[in-house]
Specification:
Largest sheet: 8 strands, mixed
Structural class: alpha/beta
CATH class of the largest domain: Alpha Beta
Bound molecules: alpha-L-sorbopyranose
Number of helices: 10
Distance between the termini: 34 Å
Number of domains: 2
Radius of gyration: 21 Å
Order of helices and strands: EHEHEHEHEHEHEHHEEEEEEEEEHH
Length: 386
């Protein structure tokens, strides 16, 4: 396939800057894609560290102000891998400058920011996508195919949780590099926007829209030192968040996320129970789904543990030989490969900004419900432009 160059400028060199850069470099090596990403520029405020990152990952140049990056004529695509409080401003400016925009999750700090971002990319008619990477775990994609084939019948239950334990100590400070997720002004919320957002994105994709939620949140440690002010300050984020939901398809659901589940590092699990079948998936064992089909012959009926590594499983023919596993970083490679493939066909790869806006509407509803102690409906959407 003849390939066109696609000039990439990325903002941010943290955890996600690395995950995305790895995807840019690997996608074309394992997938036959219509575009060849050219790593044109890395943008971050610390010039020295930006230079080191750029050299390591092969970016041709460095910018220290994202506005300069967005103005550059030689950039086709802006990738936002910086903290949540930067997403809206950069995405809107990039779209107005006619750039394609990729954005790390959550799209905005709230639905109002996400809505303005969606509006900007749709008005500019630029390709856009949000890095909800767990959709691209082969086992999760297989689950999506099984659901779409109608194997589950009517869905009764959806269950998801995302458990971590890294903020239990009161000595963990808030704000600044690595710890901005604890700073409400930067993050927008705590585990609701950071962890539940993943669970909600996957759930909306697998099980359709959520009609209403009732939620409970808790902030266990009320004050922490702030790294920027040096002062002990109130903690504004939710440390834990749980909610019940009703989906529009009539199924009921439970969702839970916390950073206070001792021993759990990134235990994202989901489960779905339908009239004919059930399935479960667990990020700590990400290449497997457990699947039960009630229509199997009765004497042999039971839970199957499917090792999703065969060449006819989603994405797997692009990697090694059957039985050999892939991991977390591959989900980003798959997502970028899907983006470039869609771009070659003048299509959008999901989740688009509009898809991710739906997740932000649900997280807003969760936070509002926790505050008001009322069942709450996600607000209705901004209408697509003609
Ligand atoms: C938080 O610790 C975090 O890094 C999230 O921000 C990511 O989105 C999640 O995939 C893993 O956990």
């Amino acid at each position: 396939m003849e390939k066109k160059n696609l000039n990439v400028g990325i903002v941010g060199y943290g955890f996600m800057g690395r995950a995305h850069s790895n995807a840019f470099l690997q996608a074309g090596r394992f997938f036959d894609l219509p575009y060849r990403p050219v790593l044109k520029a890395l943008c971050a405020r610390n010039a020295e560290r930006a230079k080191t990152f750029a050299d390591n990952w092969g970016y041709e140049s460095v910018e220290t102000d994202w506005r300069r990056l967005v103005e550059r004529k030689d950039i086709d695509l802006i990738d936002i891998a910086s903290p949540n409080d930067t997403h809206a401003e950069i995405a809107i400016a990039a779209a107005r400058a006619g750039k394609m925009v990729l954005c790390e999750k959550p799209l905005g700090r709230n639905a109002s920011e996400a809505s303005a971002m969606t509006d900007a990319v749709e008005r500019a008619k630029v390709a856009n996508m949000v890095w909800y990477n767990y959709r691209r775990v082969p086992a999760v994609m297989l689950l999506k195919h099984l659901i779409d084939e109608g194997r589950f019948g009517r869905i009764f239950h959806y269950r998801a949780k995302f458990l971590q334990d890294w903020t239990i100590s009161p000595n963990v400070s808030q704000g600044g590099e690595g710890l901005w997720r604890l700073d409400i002004a930067v993050a927008g919320s705590g585990v609701t926007g950071d962890l539940l957002a993943h669970a909600i994105d996957t759930a909306l994709w697998l099980n359709g829209p959520i009609a209403e939620v009732t939620a409970m949140t808790e902030t266990f440690i009320k004050e922490r030192k702030h790294n920027l002010s040096g002062q002990v300050q109130p903690v504004g984020i939710d440390d834990a968040s749980a909610f019940l939901a009703r989906f529009e398809n009539g199924s009921m659901a439970t969702f839970e996320a916390t950073r206070y589940a001792r021993g759990h590092k990134a235990l994202y699990t989901l489960e779905i129970n339908g009239e004919n079948a059930s399935a479960e998936w667990d990020l700590h064992d990400l290449h497997r789904i457990r699947f039960f089909d009630h229509r199997d012959e009765s004497q042999l009926r039971g839970w199957r543990s499917i090792h999703v590594t065969d060449s006819d499983h989603p994405y797997m023919k692009h990697w090694w030989v059957p039985g050999l596993q892939i991991g977390y970083e591959h989900t980003f490679v798959h997502q970028f490969a899907d983006f470039l493939e869609a771009l070659g066909q003048a299509k959008q790869a999901a989740p688009t900004f509009r898809d991710a806006l739906e997740t932000d509407k649900v997280t807003d509803a969760v936070l509002k419900s926790a505050e008001t102690r009322q069942w709450t409906e996600p607000i209705r959407g901004i209408e697509p432009r003609p």
